[in-house]
Amino acid sequence: MKVVINSASAKVGGAVTYLASLLQHLPPPESGHQFIVFLPEATEEAASRVNRNIQLHPLAERKQNGWRRIWWEQVTLRRFLIEEQVDVLYSAGNFGMLRCPVRQILLVHNALYFSRIYERMFVKRHRLGMRIARRLRRWLVCQSVKSADVVMTPTQTMLDELRKYIEIPPGRALVNPYGVTESFEPAGRDIFGSGLGREGSPVRFLYVSLYAEHKDLTTLLKALPLLNGNGGRKFMLETTVNPAWEGARWTLSYQNDIDLSRRPDIAPWVRIVGPLERQEAQALYRRTDIFVFPSLTESFGHPLAEAMAHGLPIVASDTPVNREICGEAAVYFRPLSPEDLATRLCGLARNGALRARLSAQGRHRARLHFRWATHVDRILAALQAPPTRTEECQPALTLASCD
């Protein structure tokens, strides 16, 4: 089977991690499958060292933006599929080929196009051009869904959000969680040796992600004076969520978070590092006590799965997707509440039995639900399944009502 993987939009963050992990777990040449992968030039190194049945086709930056990307995906790539007699197209970047000439699997993984909380808190404050662009992208995703044989999301929560805008019959929907690196920490690891195990040492907690306004670094920073202002055990935050990162300049919140991080009652207790390469970020999990995740909306929340795999107890915002990923392996706090976050962190730091239970449950949950090999097996099954589409998806909402 000849498969084209379109990852032209995999430039930063989770998209790059996803592509690199996917390629590492695709079947070898003996399987008889051939994979042709389109990806940005800047991502080629991260996705290198693959099997010889995987051909990487880097795309220049000019082909990845705006109407050039649409032309390439809808015209140039279509011609390639026909001329090369490709069997299946796997569109891994939210947007698919309209009226695709071959079987198409579409991965939809951008929650921001469909999140009601993101729209309520941020979108109405964006510039007009950004609001129009988001609306257009959401419409294009809906049109892509109509043209796909299988629509895949990493969580049921993401699928439910998508279905608020377009109908997807059950036979064409696939929930397929991502995986984590299968180097789970042994059960005997002293995961609290970095701080909680030593009298007088600060409790170290970690937040790994790229900066964006919905990641809600603000709540985390505001919790630090509450944690450290009572004369008791101190708490030190380490995070890759960097508001000074160049890519954060489009957000509404970056300057406020920069100012917060420099306040005298906050600055001594926060260390901002990054963005980091994947291996550098992985090292952070091994030197922390508690993982915290205040994000307001996600399609998956890959750092949560990684934290569980490392045996870290987790404090996460109480959102549907976070509960879907962590289940009973986390303590949850009210979103946007630094007071409740501080209370949960203090309680977890004092309760060794709870930390041990969360650690064990997290490792078990990661082993059971989040494996790249299983993720790829589900994709291959969908790629090889006979066509089942007998009816077109119809939009649940018109474009005019999608603002």
Task: Characterise this structure.
It is a single chain. This protein is an alpha/beta fold. It folds into two domains: 2-179 and 371-401, Glycogen Phosphorylase B (Rossmann fold); 203-369, Glycogen Phosphorylase B (Rossmann fold, 3-Layer(aba) Sandwich), CATH 3.40.50.2000. Helices cover 37% and strands 15% of the residues. It is built from 13 helices and 13 strands. The strands form two sheets. Strands 3-2-1-4-5-6-7 form a seven-stranded parallel beta sheet, with helices on both faces. Strands 10-9-8-11-12-13 form a six-stranded parallel beta sheet, sandwiched between helices. The radius of gyration is 22 Å and the shape is globular. Residues 186-194 and 389-403 have low confidence and may be disordered.
| Beta-strand content bin | 5-15%
Strand order of the largest sheet: 3-2-1-4-5-6-7
Assigned CATH class of the largest domain? Alpha Beta
N→C terminal distance: 40 Å
CATH topology of the largest domain: Rossmann fold
Rg (C-alpha, Å) = 22 Å
**What is the helix/strand order?**
EHEEHEEHHEHEEHEHEHEHEHEHHH
- Could you say how many structural domains there are in total? 2
Mean pLDDT over the residues: 89
Q: Count all strands and give the number.
A: 13
CATH architecture of the largest domain: 3-Layer(aba) Sandwich
The total of helices stands at 13
Structural class: alpha/beta
Q: How helix-rich are the residues, as a percent range? A: 25-40%
Query: Low-confidence stretches at least 5 residues in length (pLDDT < 50)?
Result: 186-194, 389-403
The fourth-level CATH homologous superfamily of the largest domain is Glycogen Phosphorylase B
